Structure to design on (461 residues):
């Protein structure tokens, strides 16, 4: 207290000046029209710059972690690629053929996925239906109803596309339904979100006779059209019998936490057009 | 303010404000900013020498905001007033007579310090006030060379004539 008084005695004039000038700046930029326009324009300009700096700085801070993850991913992809080239037998399912000609000398169709890197620019996890936005759009080749994954797991499904951006229905959305399977069994079910904790999804329709253990791997099933089959989804947390049925509900701990979406990949399936039109024929027939 | 008569200051406050608001601001408005005479800072300049700096700064702000409220430019003159109040303290310190100020020199007027001293101090004082005033009025460095500095120079020259006339005419001693 004593030193504050000392400070005021020594620099009282300057302090009074600073305080009064702040008041004056406020008055000038609030009650005078031309000055208000000038100051608000400057404010917009410099605050935008400041936010840009902040983003750059945060990006910089996250570089190390990103780098680590990218390197792991490169390694993993390299491994897969090498395997794919070397192993000349059907590796994953009836769709993924490694040879172009089968034993009947007919041409095979190879599934073809093109991963388009994108960055998440907005994201929610607290609502009952969550959405996120990515910085890729129609011009980059993003189409509605394509899957979005990250290196660590699942992200969501593209629903709406503009020229440069796309809205993605998060995995934490009641309408999201992803065909997934337990890695050690051939059985598949639907991965849905029942509105529980953000990192927990439910895998339904798994027959109850299967022995499911905590920690078992859950991956994208071979019947998924939007997501690359075999992509990691999460691990089993717990399982319970659905009342009155013969099926298990399995709570799955997602390997990619929805609060940490950042760098993601839009999965373009080369044949989705053909497959969709075939499915549409079936639907039309039902009607 | 031991024994200093405060009434001359009050009269200066009222008189200069009225002259500024009723005559000079109207003239400035009709001349499109090119005949801007600011006399009210004379009140700040002629405050007692012994008055503490924070009080001078505050009184400068006070007469500025009074003029502002009467001419409809809140903050512009007040900012310049506070700034020149502080500038006066720096100037008086810089141009202090040998041996410092005494009770025999109640206000910084030519009657006590001579015309040469007064003209130097008043010139710098009004220079600071007027430049700051125009900076606040335009509020952007974009106009610095084309408008702020030329208009300040013109206003400063006109104001100095009026200030010297005033001082010669009234020859304030307290």
């Amino acid at each position: 207290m004593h030193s504050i008084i000392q400070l005021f005695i020594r620099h009282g004039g300057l302090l009074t000046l600073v305080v009064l000038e702040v008041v004056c700046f406020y008055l000038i930029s609030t009650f005078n029209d031309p000055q208000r326009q000038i100051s608000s324009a400057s404010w917009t300009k410099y605050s935008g710059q400041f936010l840009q700096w902040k983003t750059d700085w945060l990006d910089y801070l996250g570089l190390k972690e990103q780098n680590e993850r990218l390197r792991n991913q490169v390694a993993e992809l390299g491994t897969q690629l090498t395997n794919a080239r070397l192993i000349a037998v059907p590796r994953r399912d009836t769709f993924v053929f490694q040879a172009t000609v089968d034993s009947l000398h007919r041409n095979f169709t190879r599934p073809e996925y093109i991963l388009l890197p994108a960055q998440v620019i907005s994201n929610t996890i607290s609502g009952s239906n969550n959405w996120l936005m990515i910085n890729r759009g129609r011009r980059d080749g993003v189409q509605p109803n394509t899957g979005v994954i990250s290196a660590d797991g699942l992200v969501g499904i593209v629903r709406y596309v503009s020229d440069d951006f796309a809205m993605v229905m998060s995995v934490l959305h009641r309408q999201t339904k992803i065909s997934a399977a337990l890695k050690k069994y051939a059985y598949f079910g639907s991965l849905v979100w029942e509105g529980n904790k953000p990192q927990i999804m439910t895998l339904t329709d798994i027959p109850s006779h299967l022995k499911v253990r905590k920690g078992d791997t859950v991956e994208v099933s071979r019947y998924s059209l939007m997501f690359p089959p075999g992509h990691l989804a999460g691990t089993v947390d717990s399982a319970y019998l659905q009342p009155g049925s013969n099926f298990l509900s399995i709570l799955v701990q997602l390997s990619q936490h929805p609060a940490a979406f950042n760098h993601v990949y839009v999965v373009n399936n080369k044949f989705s057009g053909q497959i969709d039109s075939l499915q549409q024929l079936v639907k039309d027939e039902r009607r | 303010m031991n024994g200093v008569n405060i009434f001359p200051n009050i009269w200066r406050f009222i008189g200069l404000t009225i002259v500024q608001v009723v005559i000079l601001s109207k003239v400035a408005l009709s001349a499109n900013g090119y005949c801007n005479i600011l006399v009210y800072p004379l009140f700040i300049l002629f405050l007692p020498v012994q008055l503490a700096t924070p009080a001078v700064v505050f009184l400068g702000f006070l007469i500025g905001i009074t003029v502002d409220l009467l001419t409809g430019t809140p903050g512009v003159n007040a900012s310049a007033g506070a700034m020149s109040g502080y500038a006066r303290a720096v100037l008086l310190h810089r141009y202090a007579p040998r041996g410092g100020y005494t009770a025999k020199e109640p206000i910084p007027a030519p009657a006590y310090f001579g015309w040469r001293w007064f003209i130097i101090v008043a010139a710098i004082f009004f220079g600071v006030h007027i430049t700051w005033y125009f900076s606040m009025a335009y509020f952007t460095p974009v106009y610095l060379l084309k408008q702020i500095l030329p208009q300040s120079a013109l206003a400063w020259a006109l104001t100095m004539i009026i200030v010297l006339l005033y001082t010669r005419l009234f020859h304030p001693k307290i």
User: Anything to note?
Assistant: Residues 7-170 of chain B form one domain. Chain B touches chain A through 23 residues (CB under 8 Å). Chain B has seven helices and no strands.
